[in-house]
Amino acid sequence: MSYLDNILFAILLIIGFGFFASSVKKIIRNINLGVDVNRKDNSKARWKNMALIALGQSKMVRRPVAGILHIFVYVGFIIINIELLEIIIDGLFGTHRIFAPYLGVVYDVLIASFEILAVLVIFAVTVFWIRRNVIRLKRFINPDLKGFPKSDANYILYFETVLMMLFLLMNASDLHLQNVPDPVFHKAGSFPISQFIAPIFNGMSNELVVLLFEVFWWLHIAGILVFMNYLYFSKHLHILLAFPNTYFANLNPEGQFDNLESVTKEVKLMMDPNADPFAAAPVDENAAPAKFGASDVQDLNWVQLLNAYTCTECGRCTSSCPANQTGKKLSPRKIMMDTRDRLQEVGKNIDANKGVFVPDNKTLLNDYITPEELWACTSCNACVEECPVNISPLSIIMDMRRYLVMEQSAAPMSLNAMMTNIENNGAPWQYSQQDRLNWKNEN
Ligand code: SF4
Ligand code: SF4
After folding, report:
1. Cβ count near 92 (within 10 Å)
2. Residues 124, 185 contacting (CB under 8 angstroms)
3. 0.85 cut: is pTM over it?
4. Where are the alpha helices (DSSP H) in 390-436?
5. Atom of ligand 1 nearest to the CA of 317
6. Residue 365: beta bridge partners?
7. Any residues with CB less than 8 A from the CB of 251 and at least 6 apart, and which?
8. What backbone torsions phi and psi does residue 369 show, to the nearest 5 degrees?
9. Longest dimension (CA), the chain
10. Angle at Cα 161 formed by Cα 232 and Cα 134, nearest 5°?
11. How confident is the model at residue 391 (pLDDT cuts 50, 70, 90)?
12. CB count, 10 Å around CB of 266?
């Protein structure tokens, strides 16, 4: 590589990482639009969750075929990135396989394992493509997965295949030049896979093979930088966010709902005959009026917003949702995708208005998620249980329902009748307090 190449490479790296850093900044800003919630407790259990679920993929393998194939892709992604470090150093300083002399035989083992992983990744990605496009598993063709999200999954599969092929072709041309021999391409590495590809370069001039090596090298590294920046627009953000998401996930038993603090305070006041309603904290006149539940993304907490960015759109939640299975409009995957779409929309609004959100007459409720979807939920927690990265679509559904009930009195008729009965009779039935045992006489 010439000095000019090294400089060009440095510029490419700065642009690639610069764009990526700006996307990360936007994601953090958007997540912080959410209401605060304390997830600093019990760090031991949180680290354990992250190690088992994000790193160990423990929930992925509950569906073994997809789970094991996903492990190939995931381990391939993590381990091959070690080689990326070497590629970056070689690109910046014009060296050739700089780690080889320092690592000796370990280097050979590493390169060999990268190559085997590359083949496993290509195999896994091919099976994933067949499951999506030929077998057409129901969760991949559900109506809630349409438009860009549907194509996004395929784009990534193509991308990963091309990157792995470029990686193997780069190694194969390198191996050919090492065997010629060429003074720059000194002997380094062990190539169990690309040794079978290298013969395609036989009969070509050294100059041509060097040129091809450089083309593969540049396309490979440029492809990785493009991939990294594509993540911001894609469901594949989960390869980064699965770690914080599992760390900050709710540790309470599924089914244990949190109480709204504002409601708890009011109930305490109502129940305590000695309570002085004016003894509360001094009123801050500038504070936003308390809002019960959530109608837009800013009313959700930051973990729910992190959930939305982490969703892999795998559809395991929707495929196990009893409401969806029985033909209701609800899809927990769509709840997460809608939340992310709305959050992105709010983020763009803030970017366009010098850092301030200008009301756009839209909300997550109604413009993205309808009351019909929300009321179809049985609150069974199957979606939470199934999610491979510990996302809770149910918590968003419940907060939006709370808004409908407490801010808009817009519960379905049957629920309104029950709530009125509880308010008047202390029980869900229409009998007065003294007749409350009448329920057992009903058929
Ligand atoms: S909690 Fe609601 S959304 Fe989740 S699986 Fe059950 S019915 Fe579906
Ligand atoms: S919420 Fe979880 S299970 Fe549902 S689509 Fe997203 S990642 Fe998959």
Report:
1. 15
2. no
3. yes
4. 393-406, 413-425
5. 5
6. 369
7. 41, 42, 45, 46, 49
8. -115, 130
9. 99
10. 95
11. very high
12. 14
Q: Which amino acid makes up residue 318? A: T
Of the candidates 153, 140, 139, 10, the one whose C-alpha atom is nearest the C-alpha of residue 73 is 153
Question: Of the ligands numbered here, which is closest to the C-alpha atom of 397?
Answer: 1
Write the CA distances from 33 to 246, 357, 398, 435, integer angstroms: 20, 10, 19, 49
Interatomic CA distance for residues 39 and 251, integer angstroms: 9
Can you tell me which atom of ligand 2 is nearest the CA of 238? Answer: 7
SS3 (DSSP) at 301: strand
Residue 81's identity, in one-letter code, is N
Distance from the alpha carbon of residue 311 to the mean position of ligand 2, in angstroms: 5
Ligand nearest to the CA of 323: 1
CA distance 144 to 330: 9
**H or E stretch covering 268:** helix 261-271
Task: State if residue 330 touches ligand 1 by the CB under 6 angstroms criterion.
Answer: yes
- The token duo for 342 is 């709305």
Crossing angle of the two packed helices 105-133 and 64-93, in degrees rounded to 10: 130
Write out pLDDT tens, residues 348-376: 999 999 999 999 999 999 999 999 999 99
Please check whether residue 343 is in contact with residue 30, taking contact to mean a CB–CB distance below 8 angstroms.
Answer: yes
Residue 88: strand, helix, or coil: helix
